[in-house]
């Protein structure tokens, strides 16, 4: 194969208890997967099929830490989410088959330029500017294990005050169901992350805010919002 013109870093996420990194190919995100959040976004949380958007792999901020306030927005929101990392091929799978493709779990933040997302949504346009931007996907190291995380508290605190509080059992579509559904459309597998949706309580953050995401059984995620342009 010919050499490439230049090298580009391979996005990767640390794995808890291991020295090798998990290399990331794609990031899929589920929209409105908790009834409370669907309602606060103005939707009916009926069990219609899940829908998706994506982020580029280089939006990841492994381990969290400082992220700059992004350009072009006046309404940056936090969305804390359970993230699943896949490790084996899965295509047109049943939920039972899909569950076996899970390599491990992490906590992620689906940072959102809500003003740009809503402007696009209201005109029926894609969400890219609102969702798929630099530093928009802080993530903890991946905790290996394929046992489905079907319940457990999920919270996000801003400056020590809990703003989002839910339970993984509140998901409209469980993780195995999400993987199975997405696998009807993609050959999923190694290097694919899925952000599985956020509970209610999303809201704006500003420079100087500290965000702490927690899910029972996983490392906590701490992110600090830095000044724009930093
Ligand atoms: Mn989200």
Briefly note the CATH topology name.
Answer: Fumarylacetoacetate hydrolase, domain 2
Overall pLDDT, averaged? 96
Distance between the termini: 39 Å
Total of DSSP H or I helical runs spanning 4+ residues: 5
Shape: globular
Elements, N to C (H/E): EEEHEEEEEHEEHHEEEEHEEEE
Q: What count of domains describes the coordinates?
A: 1
Taking all Cα atoms into account, the compactness measure Rg is 17 Å
The main pleated sheet reads as: 6 strands, mixed
The first-level CATH class is given as: Alpha Beta
What structural class results from the helix and strand content?
A: alpha+beta
CATH homologous superfamily assignment: Fumarylacetoacetase-like, C-terminal domain
Strand order within the widest sheet?
4-3-15-8-9-12
Pick out the low-confidence regions: none
Helix share, percent:
10-25%
The number of strands is 18
CATH architecture: Alpha-Beta Complex
Q: Strand-residue fraction?
A: 25-35%
User: What small ligands are held by the chains?
Assistant: manganese (II) ion
